[in-house]
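Data card: per-record layout.
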Amino acid sequence: MAWDRNQMAARAARELKDGFYVNLGIGIPTLVANHIDEGIDVTLQSENGMLGMGPFPYDDEVDADLINAGKQTITELRRTSYFSSAESFAMIRGGHIDLSVLGAMEVSEKGDLANWMIPGKMVKGMGGAMDLVAGVKRVVVVMDHASKSGAPKLLHECSLPLTGRAVVDMVITNLGVFEIETGKGMKLVELASGVCIDDVKELTQADFDVAVSS
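The structure for this 214-residue chain is written out next.
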């Protein structure tokens, strides 16, 4: 048994600390907003110029004018502020965001990240990915452990165009949690419920140390 998307998002939400300014990427990372502990004060930031995002709206709360960078409808808070995209990226590039939670197509054992395009396929654009991995203090990736075809996504080297080199600090997949430390490589630190180490090894190309018992 592996984690589903909401369980992965809930695990990622545990990385958010009181007082953090956090950017959530598109895909599974957007679900993190619904799992933030009520006991901590976190401010969510979006590249399109919104600071202080609330959780996803219920059907009767939808406001088509309130969207995140992934074009999903969201809710605002009493403290929400709005500004230009240029100011939003200045905040990211200036090192004012504590944590970014991103999706990925591939991650290498050294923390290289590929998450913005597959050659030959239509892509809307880079978005804020390169700025986020370069300007944010800590990067957590949340993704399925393998592709739909069963191919590993944790690799020795990324085969797709890179978003950044040695930028990922943690990877959370449906099978478990990996920490990546520059110069020391990848380490498995947590397993999803019902998953054993052999399950992880079978779907992982990257070399990794094990710091958890099966």
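Known properties of this structure: The radius of gyration is 17 Å. The chain is about 15% helix and 25% strand.

See the next section for split statistics.
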